[in-house]
Amino acid sequence: MLTLENVSYRYAGALRPSLREVTMTLRDGEIVGVVGPSEAGKSTLCLVAAGLAPRTVGGSLTGRTLLDGAESMSLAMYEMAARIGIGFENPGTQLSGVTVTVYEEVAFGPMNLGVARGEVVARTEAALRTLHIEDLSARDPARLSGGQQQLVAIAGLLAMAPAHLVLDEPTAQLDPAGTQLVSAAITTLARSGRSILIAEHKTDLLASVCDRVVALESGRVVLEGAAGAVLGDPRLRELGVSEPSAIRIRRLAAESGLRSGILEEALAAPATSL
Amino acid sequence: MIELALEAVTHVYPVGKVHALDGIDLRIAGGERVALIGQNGSGKSTLVRHLNGLLRPTSGRVLVAGADVRHATVAQLAHTVGLVFQDPDRQIFAGTVRAEVEYGPRNLGLRGPALRAAVDDALAAVGLEHEEKTNPYDLGASRRKLLALASVLAMGTPALVLDEPTTGQDERGVERVRSVIDAVHAAGRTLVAISHDMRFVAEAFDRIVVMRAGRIIADGTPAIVFGSDSWETLRSTYLEPPLAALLGARLGLGSTPTDASLVTALGATASS
């Protein structure tokens, strides 16, 4: 379990705090979405939750962050890395830059955690399979498209098998099929008891995977609750967050004075052309 | 208004002999507003890099305003086709927002009031008019992306190519990009954009070109490309039409690629 208690955080040299009095809990087996307009503090929340801010990033933090009951700050960096993984929005930031094949890149994390060789191989191959990128194994990570790099970066995180995973816009550069793979992968992880915090602009994705959603504005939690309730809250739009497609269509129909009986029937069927 | 055309273009990357483009024939009329969709690695970015000479075809011809780009330098093409990269950090280098936006038009020879006006207009178009003196790296990632858009917009090129313009943008950012696209279109500039956001392409573009493995597999209006007759083609490359298109077909309302067209069609059935 990951807990933030009344956390405020300010980057070094910043005039204002980027997070203000944030209290939230990420339970084991749970997927929690983070939404908010640009610069509301979503990425900062990811850095703080993963223990990188202030430890690596600098800045100052008040309040407490607890990882499985222990103060995050009391854990050594290698202990943190074994328990919680973070995926950055830009895979260029994520990739190690020291490996020459995708296979080595995905194996890099568990190798550094001191995982036994056979286990590293098993985890690496499983992660490549999960994201359907086995055929990229021998390629140079630096010479892949942005979307492919994003899948490689996420495979690297899966191979580290952390109990908690923080993902900052993991599908920003992915096509719809890649987005589906990531969504399936995190759903599977959550079922195995891992917890996932995911910041995303794609609210359709959040609607399909999240148990709960928190909305941030100017560093504060302004909405929090069950995914369906938060993503359907009209205030979300006022915050500048795009509504999930179904919610938007319902709203537009209602605004045109349409009774939506047949629309609801159509929406009840699965949202796929298959 | 300038036309862009690819004729039987192939592009083979030297490393691994990857056929990124495999016989592309595409004609984009002057002033058209075209979206390119397809999976990661289907050749979309490779295709658009041919339009401003960053990449040269292995075979076939690329024509910009009727002239074969083989005879043009990248510098000459920069006057005609502006390209905004997916990752803004690949193009941002200046110390202030204003200097960043000034760089392009200055290189094209603009000076004095004309330069000032071009920069002012571009900054206002993306909502960065109050950040002139800000260091680009003090802006968040989404506003850096809008800055990269402004810096190409300011060059006033008759054709504009945007690679994933809405990635990482919140609702307001997407609206900004949309209004820039509308303004560019209204000014008669030719516009090509790559996107994975099906709802956005259905709403903001007149024509959608679908790519798979270096080839074009569908090409038409949003109503055609997202209409149920095209679903099998879309599925062959793991694309799904927007939810509005699915609902419209499910309700027997014909092709309704956008939320607005779905609601209009629903209204028409309700009142009849």
Which helices and strands appear, and what pairs or packs with what?
The complex is a heterodimer of chains A (274) and B (272).
Chain A: E1 2-10, E2 19-26, E3 31-35, H1 42-49, E4 60-67, E5 70-71, H2 77-83, E6 84-87, H3 91-94, H4 102-112, H5 117-130, H6 146-160, E7 164-168, H7 176-191, E8 195-199, H8 203-209, E9 212-217, E10 220-226, H9 227-231, H10 235-239, H11 245-255, H12 261-268
Parallel strand pairs in A: 3-8, 3-9, 6-7, 7-8
Antiparallel strand pairs in A: 1-2, 1-4, 4-5, 9-10
Helix pairs in contact in A: 4-5, 4-6, 5-6
Chain B: E1 4-13, E2 18-28, E3 33-38, H1 44-51, E4 59-64, E5 67-68, H2 74-78, E6 81-84, H3 97-107, H4 112-125, H5 141-153, E7 159-163, H6 171-186, E8 190-194, H7 198-204, E9 207-212, E10 215-220, H8 222-225, H9 231-235, H10 243-250, H11 259-271
Helix pairs in contact in B: 3-4, 3-5, 4-5, 10-11
What's this model, at a glance?
The complex is a heterodimer of chains A (274) and B (272). Chain A has helices at residues 42-49, 77-83, 91-94, 102-112, 117-130, 146-160, 176-191, 203-209, 227-231, 235-239, 245-255, 261-268; strands at residues 2-10, 19-26, 31-35, 60-67, 70-71, 84-87, 164-168, 195-199, 212-217, 220-226.
CATH homolog superfamily of the largest domain in chain A? P-loop containing nucleotide triphosphate hydrolases
One letter per element, helices H and strands E, the order of chain A comes to EEEHEEHEHHHHEHEHEEHHHH
Strand content of chain B: 15-25%
Return residue spans of chain A where pLDDT drops below 50 for at least 5 consecutive residues: none
What does this protein structure show overall?
By secondary structure, chain A is of the alpha/beta class. Helices cover 41% and strands 22% of the residues of chain A. Chain A is built from twelve helices and ten strands. In chain A, strands 6-7-8-3-9-10 form a six-stranded mixed beta sheet, sandwiched between helices. In chain A, helix 4 (102-112) packs across helix 5, helix 4 (102-112) runs parallel beside helix 6 (146-160) and helix 5 crosses helix 6. Chain B is built from eleven helices and ten strands. Chain B is globular, with a radius of gyration of 19 Å. Chain B has helices at 44-51, 74-78, 97-107, 112-125, 141-153, 171-186, 198-204, 222-225, 231-235, 243-250, 259-271; strands at 4-13, 18-28, 33-38, 59-64, 67-68, 81-84, 159-163, 190-194, 207-212, 215-220. Chain B is an alpha/beta fold. Helix content of chain B is 38%, strand content 22%. The interface between A and B is large, with 48 and 48 residues.
